[in-house]
Every structure is written in structure tokens, then in C-alpha cells.
């Protein structure tokens, strides 16, 4: 597939989550240079996979670096579930709605967005302008023979979304609709930015060290004929008991999505992977390697190849020192 003229390729960058300084280090490692406040490369462009905000020590820096690049035409970005959550959290529900805010201000949701609101506390107008920007971010991108989405490329839903919004950018009406369970907008936002999950059997929970309790587990979309939970689980937490071997029911299989081996290369973030970056399949790369939990901020240097190559991952390791002053760096905060 031919790239745009004058372009050697795209550098796709996974979930930054407020690791602004780490992002700058990664961009410099990739050969981007700061020119008048915008990181530029003579022959390459960046694509961010979403989730710039929440959890990290330098959220303002992360958003500012990314937005300046996007505004200057040096980068593109898709919306992550954290940008989506922030939009819903900060927008009052229309009158007649059952709730006050589009996303409830309950302890769990408060905690997920807390660091972002803290760091923008003194900069309310800046935060407002970023929220307005978040609403303009496309949910998915397809360009030059490759695809980008934050969590899951579900072809039927993407097709229907693009019929309604040809550039993948939603609006306030869609955002409001998406907070109603069962609506088309809810299915789109949930699947594209959060992926698929399977509920755990009654009485079974996954308890993370940070106090979050989960009653479902995250699943991937690249096993053609999955038989058991273990065939599709894709998350850092192990399944409790012997659930790896538990057969999937027909109803559970119905909940899953499937991305064919023959489809264009796809880049996703979202899944808190650990360790050395690896490819789940030759046409799928996940670039979220838990940067904000002292993992790696990962990029993939794509030059137009149809089969991806694990040698094209580039990363910066995040050490406790590199996010000094930030206490929440242990592998705990595992919200969404
Ligand atoms: Mn994320």
C-alpha cells in the first residue's frame, strides 16, 4: 500500500496516561525535534492511540504535546476510553435525564479522573478547551492501508458508525445517546474504546490491589474459534480458580468480536500489556505496555508493511525515578 507522498511512515504511540516527559523522550528517540513548540519529523507522522490523560504525573504536558502536533498536521489521534469518560464526566445530563452528569460522580469514577482534575485545577479554561477538542477526536482511522482504534475494531459497528459519521467523529447528541445502555451509540463507544468483556460466573470476582473489584474479564478479538475463557482472555490479571479451562457458552461467544487475518494491519492500545512488546498476530499490534505503571511507553514504526514485524517496536522504559514525585506508580491503579 502506497504511503502519502513525501512520507516514510507513521509512528504509532500507545496509551500515554499523563507520562508527558516520557512521551517527549520517546518522540526524541524516534527522531522528532521540537520546533517552536511542535515536535516534527522530516519524513514521518505520529498517530496516538488515545488515553493521553489520567493517572500520570504530567497530564497537561502530554495533552499539550499531542494537541500541538495534531493542530500542526504532524499527528493524528483516536479517542480513548479515558477521553470519552472525561467528556461524559464533565457534561451535565440534559434536563429530564435520570442523572445529573452523563457519567456518574461515584467514588470509582471520581478516582479514575482525579489526577487529571487536580492537575488542571488551576487551568479551568485550558481544561475546557481540551474537552472541546476531545469531542472532535475520531473513534477510528483507516489510512494508507492501516487501521487504528483504541480497543476493538468491530467491522459491523465501524461500518454503521461511518454511515452516520463518515469521518468517525461523533457529536454531543451521540455522546448523550451513548450513556443509555443498549443504544447504538452505547454499543459503539463501549466496543471501540473498551473492547469486549465476558462476565465472570456468579459469585466469582477479580480483586485488584487498588481495591477495584471486577466481575468481568477483558477479551481479545483474534481467536477464530475460541473454545475456552483462556483462549480469549487479554488482561494483566489472571483468571481466578480454573476458569482458564472453562468452555465458552454460545451466548458468551456471541459477545465476542473477530478480526480476520486478511484484514489490514490494526493498531490498538488499552490493554495494559506487560513485558517486552510482542505481536498477538501478524496484522495486530497492541501498543499499551503500562507506561504509567512503570512499564514501557511503546511506539511502532510502520512503513507500509502488511505483515507487522516485532523488530519495529520502539520504547522508553518508565522508572519510578522518571516519574518522581508521583506516588501511584506501583502496578495497582487498574481502573478501566
Ligand atoms: Mn488506557
Task: Give your account of this protein's structure.
- This protein has 336 residues and is an alpha/beta fold.
- The chain has 2 domains: 9-195 and 257-323, Purple Acid Phosphatase, chain A, domain 2, CATH 3.60.21.10; 196-256, no CATH class.
- 28% of the residues lie in helices and 18% in strands.
- It contains 10 helices and 16 strands.
- It has helices spanning 20-29, 59-71, 81-90, 107-119, 124-134, 155-164, 172-178, 184-194, 229-232, 250-255; strands spanning 9-13, 33-35, 38-40, 44-48, 75-77, 140-143, 146-149, 196-199, 206-207, 213-214, 216-219, 266-268, 284-286, 288-289, 296-302, 313-317.
- The strands form 5 sheets. Strands 1, 4, 5, 14, 15 and 16 form a 6-stranded mixed β-sheet that branches. A 4-stranded mixed β-sheet has the order 6-7-12-13, with no helix packed on it.
- Strand 9 (206-207) and strand 10 (213-214) form a beta hairpin.
- Helix 1 packs across helix 2 and helix 7 crosses helix 8.
- The longest helix has 13 residues, at 59-71.
- The structure holds manganese (II) ion.
- Manganese (II) ion binds at residues 15, 17, 51, 80, 82, 269-270, 288.
List keywords for this structure.
10 helices, four-stranded mixed sheet, 16 strands, six-stranded mixed sheet, Purple Acid Phosphatase, chain A, domain 2, 336 residues, 2 domains, alpha/beta, binds manganese (II) ion
Would you list the SSEs in sequence order as H and E? EHEEEHEHHHEEHHHEEEEHHEEEEE
CATH superfamily of the largest domain: Metallo-dependent phosphatases
Quaternary organisation: single chain
Count of distinct structural domains: 2
Task: Please tally the helical runs, counting DSSP H or I stretches of 4 or more residues.
Answer: 10
Number of strands: 16
What percent of the residues sit in helical stretches (DSSP H or I)?
Answer: 25-40%
* Unreliable residue runs: 327-336
Gap between N and C termini, in Å? 35 Å
Radius of gyration, in Å, reads 19 Å
Bound molecules: manganese (II) ion
